[in-house]
Every structure is written in C-alpha cells, then in structure tokens.
Amino acid sequence: MQHGRTISTLGFAALYCIVIVTGTPAHAAADPNKVLHVAIEAGDDGFDPSSSTNYYSGLIEEVIFDRLLTYDYLAEPVKLVPMAAESLPEVTDGGKTFTFRLRKGIFFTPDAAFKSGRRELIAADVAYSIKRFMDPKNRSPWRFLFQEKQRSIRLRRQRPRPRDRRSIHDPDAPDRHRL
After folding, report:
1. Mind giving me the DSSP string for 9-48?
2. Packing angle of the helix pair 2-22, 55-64 (nearest 10 deg)
C-alpha cells in the first residue's frame, strides 16, 4: 500500500514538474480536447486555502491559485521569487512594513459572479484573502504560521496605535495594484 502511494505521489510530482517546465501560463484556457484527468487517492476537503488541510487539496490549490511569492526550487540555494507580485516586496519601517505591487493582467476565471465577465486581480482581493485567513471565525488551521506576528501585534496594541498604521489583520490596499 505504501509503495503504491509513493509511486502515485512521485508520478503526480513528475507531472506537475512537466507542466511547470513546459511554461504553460496559469491564465491560459485549457483546450477541452487536451484535458488530463488525474486520480487522487483520497477525497478533497475543499479548495479553500484558509481551511483545507488535505494533501491532495493542497496540490490542486497550488495549481489553481496564484500566490504573491513562490519558490524557485532550481536556484541554489532555493529562493523566493515573485508570482502574482511584480517583484519582491519593498521592506520599510525596520522590517515591519512590506509593500507588494501586483503584476497587471492576472484575471479570475470568467464566472457569473463577475457581471462584466473578465475580472482582474486587484490589491483589495489580496487584502480580503489575508483578512479572511486571519479572521478567528474562519478557524484557519494555518494561522500558526503568523503566531509570532500575532504576539507582536498584541504587544503593540497595548500602546496607543496611530490611526494610519495597519497590521497583518488589516492589510491596506491604497490602490488597485499595491498592497
């Protein structure tokens, strides 16, 4: 059983690498005559990055969602590179403020929810995702990734907080492509 799981995991990883290496853009529409069906060993637990914990759901989420940054695993040493961001963030305020500029031309998949048909990804969308991830009502199992940040935010809130300062709980999107 374990041997079969290892082989299928390696097969899926190899397939993922082939897709990455061929340079297929994430926003290109799939040719319905060239759809690849891949079996996974377990059911998914949804494709909401803030709540899913299933390994297979995570593999699919990595393919269907753009992240601000990703890793270049071929670099030595491995390094962070922009994905939905235009470049690495501008770090100011002694490392307390990170400013991302979004790449223009990233569009959501057309859906009836977007009355105009095509809708471009904007900074407010990324800010919403972060707020949703950090909202205690959503009980994200991944909040631990920000535990140290949360502790420093609590300490900072004990002091008077200037109105124009933002925290990880309340990211600011001052324009369409800056977060």
Report:
1. HHHHHHHHHHHHHHT--TTSPPPGGGPPP---SS----S-
2. 10
> Is the separation of the CB atoms in 166 and 172 below 8 Å?
yes
Q: Are 179 and 127 in contact (CB under 8 A)?
A: yes
Would you say residue 38 lies in a domain? yes
For residue 146, give its domain range: 2-157
Does residue 13 fall inside a structural domain?
A: yes
Exposure b/e, 83-109, CB count within 10 A at least 16 = b = ebbeeebeeeeeeeeeebbbbeebeee
Number of domains in the chain: 1
Residue 121 lies in a domain: yes
**Can you tell me whether residue 83 is helix, strand or coil?**
coil
Question: Mind listing the pLDDT tens digit of every residue in the chain (179 residues)?
Answer: 455 554 444 444 444 444 444 444 445 667 878 887 778 888 778 888 888 888 888 888 888 888 999 999 999 999 999 999 999 999 988 888 889 999 999 998 888 888 877 889 999 999 888 888 888 888 888 887 766 565 554 555 555 445 444 555 567 787 888 87
**Model-level pTM?**
0.64
